[in-house]
Amino acid sequence: MLHLDAERLAARDHDPLTADELAHLAQCAACRSERDAFDRLAALAEGERDRPGARLTSWAALSSALRDEGLITRPSDVPELPVAAEISLVRPGRAPSFAQPTGSVQSSVVASGNVAARSRVWRTTAWRAAAAMLVFTSGALVGRGTATTSLDVPVGASQVDGAIGLTTASSSSGANAFRSVEDATRALERAQREYERASFWLASHDTTVNAQSVYRARLAALEQMLNASRAGLFEAPQDPVLNQYYLAAYTAREATLRQLGEAMPVDRVMESF
Amino acid sequence: MDTDAAIVRRAIEGDERAMRLLWNQHSPHVDAIVARLAGDPDLAQDLAQEVWIQIFRALPSWRGDSKFSTWLHRVAINRSLNALRRTRRQAAVEAPIEEHTVAVDHDEATPSLLAASIEEACRQLAPGARRVFYLHDVQGFTHEEIAEELGITSGGSKSQLFKARAKLRRLLAPLLDTPDDTVERSYAAP
Q1: In which region does residue B64 sit, left (phi positive, over 0), alpha (psi from -120 to 50) or beta (all else)?
Q2: What is the largest CA-CA distance in chain A?
Q3: Which of A119, B72, B129, B175 is least crowded, fewest Cβ atoms below 10 Å from its Cβ?
Q4: Which of A22, A57, A89, A204 would you mutate first to test chain B, the one with the most B CBs within 10 A?
């Protein structure tokens, strides 16, 4: 008998080998080797399923297309979202409410315009203060259960990359943990994703802190940080680090809004903080 | 409240921040699906944005009865195949998927055609064979599901799968052969 055809071996999980073919296989090392190669191919294929690929899209291009399609109705480059509407979206059992923002939310819009007109020195100082506060706040939010984490833990090998990544960003010794710019950038992106996930999770699950006054104070501080962040981005709109800080502050603000919404009585709608 | 459900709900409402979160979280996986089904990197780039728009349009159809990632996975495959069908460029560079017409080179792969990875090898398959192999052996679709997605019969799907496997086996010889595979072997039919 001649060797088994490659397509015949490729089909044996659909069409089992006959007795003659099995007998040949038993005595032919070459065909057994070929069969094993097909088994390895099947294993390789299975491993492909969850292997991530390179990104083919950028958010800038995609979000522009989504706006054109009318799918984005609340752009994130307008941080002054209607607060009551945003809270009502995450409160179970309540119809969405779209009350207009009032009080200090409106004030923050005015403040935003004023900030752009202030001096460069003020913006730089405010930005640095905001960045420092953000690192602290991020650690407090995400690192609640990771307080004992050492700065020497390799970035990327931990489930708590968010806290570690943000902390090492301000640590001169931590900078040595990265082998390249790409390595550090990947760690930063991982940290951002983890941070966002943790923030949303905490907003939905954390019931240990339930005081409205705490949330209101945090929200007011985050509002100031967002203003300062915007001022920083005004100076360097393409800077990836500044963008990361801005996004982190924005995420923290959203998470706090949710927490505040959960802490309020069901029949109350927040109109200011 | 489940985090995925909360984010999806806000994305459906048109919240860019929530949409970006979903994209940020899932694009490595979704874009990999697009790339592997398209085969050609340029074509994949052209399609990826369209697929994402279709995914966001489809968000309201996720009822929460399965994991969001599972739902997204299936929708990404479906929308990628739809986008491929619609692409004029696709029609211009290849014949429609027909049964038993996939040209598979039965000669031994020459060293210059050997591939270093399964992804690279798959790019050397004919489009129809590549999609059948990807859907069946990588994604675990049945031949009936593949037939429905690609508009062919399940028999045609099987035929293309076996040809694709045989060609991949030759292209990937450096990866699949063990050092003691020194026995010469022909591919003659029994």
Answers
A1: left
A2: 89
A3: A119
A4: A57
Q: Which residue has the tokens 């979903």?
A: B22
pLDDT in tens, A191-236: 777 777 777 676 666 665 556 677 777 888 888 787 787 777 767 7
- For residues B20 and A76, the answer to whether their CB atoms sit within 8 Å is yes
Closest CA to A161 of A192, A205, A182, A185: A192
Structure tokens at A96: 């969405």
Q: Is B17 on the interface with A (CB under 8 A)?
A: yes
In one-letter notation, the amino acid at residue B105 is: D
> Which chain B residue shows the shortest CA-CA distance from A46?
B138
**Closest to A164 measured CA to CA, from A177, A149, A185:** A149
Contact between A83 and A271 (Cβ < 8 Å): yes
Tokens of A105: 């939310």
DSSP A52: -
Q: Find the Cα–Cα–Cα–Cα dihedral B56, B59, B61, B67, rounded to 10°.
A: 130
Torsions phi, psi of A11, nearest 5?
A: -100, 5
Q: Establish, for the pair of chains A and B, how many residue pairs have beta carbons separated by less than 8 Å.
A: 187
Q: How far apart are CA A261 and CA A204, in angstroms?
A: 10
Low pLDDT (below 50) residues in chain A: 78-126, 128-132, 135-136, 139-173, 271-273
**How would DSSP label each residue in B149-186?**
HHTS-HHHHHHHHHHHHHHHHHHTHHHH--TT------
Locus of tokens 């407090």: A140
* pLDDT single digits (tens) B118-168: 888 998 899 999 999 999 999 999 999 999 989 999 999 999 999 999 999
- The CA distance from A88 to B153, in Å, is 50
CA distance A52 to A74: 30
Give the pair of three-digit tokens for residue A181.
């710019």
d(CA A51, CA A47): 7
ipTM of model over 0.95: no
Instruction: Say yes or no for a CB contact (<8 Å) between A196 and B187.
Output: no
